[in-house]
Write a structure and sequence with these properties.
The protein has four helices and twelve strands, in the order H-E-E-E-H-H-E-E-E-E-E-E-E-E-E-H. It has helices spanning 3-22, 61-68, 76-79, 201-225, and strands at 28-33, 36-42, 49-57, 85-97, 107-118, 129-139, 145-151, 164-165, 167-168, 171-178, 181-191, 193-194. Strand 2 (36-42) and strand 3 form a beta hairpin. It starts with a helix and ends with a helix.
Length: 227
């Protein structure tokens, strides 16, 4: 993949994530329980919905990010029931730098191509999927870290038998430390995924809110037990 083009595309996705994060208009709540709110609004990327999930995790941001980070050695396979495998197909850039002036740690900004496989779901009405994404990890001066992704193609990632190729339109996740509360982290996630295949719209619309709520439940558990 051309590094310059990849950098341009990923920067545009990261900017869209910031816009989604800042724009509070038009969201309709579709699920709210246990301190997690899932809402949606029409996607402008494809004929589907953009979903937003927000919740508080009672763990330091470093531990929460260890569970979330889309990097080699990711823990997602261990705790996220919607991920059966995750791999970095190509590392495009990996630039060390001190992002956070108030945090004495050296992190890495990474741009890579990943492949994620998901299991069957909704009583097997949704068959296993795989996704190939361009992924940018970025940090901001307020201490938050984000993953930003969108679908891409890669020569080493042809479609695989037994999997339907899905497509993630601009999506991502923000991991935000709360000022004055070092053991508490806000997580805000955005998904707008085309599962492809021949799925009834009712199945898709029932799946995503429930899946996002479960994501937060499992993340909370993993942040205190795995990280």
């Amino acid at each position: 993949m051309d590094p310059a083009l990849a950098a341009q595309v990923s920067a545009e996705v990261a900017e869209k994530m910031l816009q989604y994060r800042r724009d509070a208009s038009g969201w309709k709540t579709c699920r709210e329980d246990n301190g997690v709110c899932v809402s949606w609004r029409p996607s402008v990327e494809f004929p589907g919905k953009l979903y937003r999930g927000e919740g508080i995790v009672k763990a330091p941001w470093e531990k929460v990010w260890d569970c979330l980070k889309p990097l080699a050695g990711s823990l997602r396979e261990k705790w996220d029931e919607n991920v059966t495998s995750f791999e970095i197909v190509e590392s495009i850039t990996d630039t060390a730098g001190l992002w956070l002036r108030v945090r004495p740690c050296c992190l890495h900004e990474t741009l890579s191509v990943s492949r994620t496989a998901t299991p069957s779901a909704a009583m097997k009405l949704i068959s296993p999927r795989d996704f190939v994404d361009l992924v940018l990890v970025r940090a901001y001066e307020d201490g938050s870290i984000s993953s930003n992704a969108t679908h891409t193609e890669h020569p080493s990632c042809p479609t695989r038998p037994g999997y339907v190729r899905g497509f993630n339109h601009p999506c991502g996740c923000f991991c935000e430390p709360l000022p004055g509360e070092p053991s508490t982290t806000r997580v805000v996630a955005f998904f707008q995924t085309d599962l492809s295949g021949y799925l009834p719209q009712s199945v898709v619309e029932a799946f995503f809110p429930r899946s996002m709520a479960t994501f937060f439940t499992n993340l909370r558990r993993a942040s205190t037990s795995l990280c």
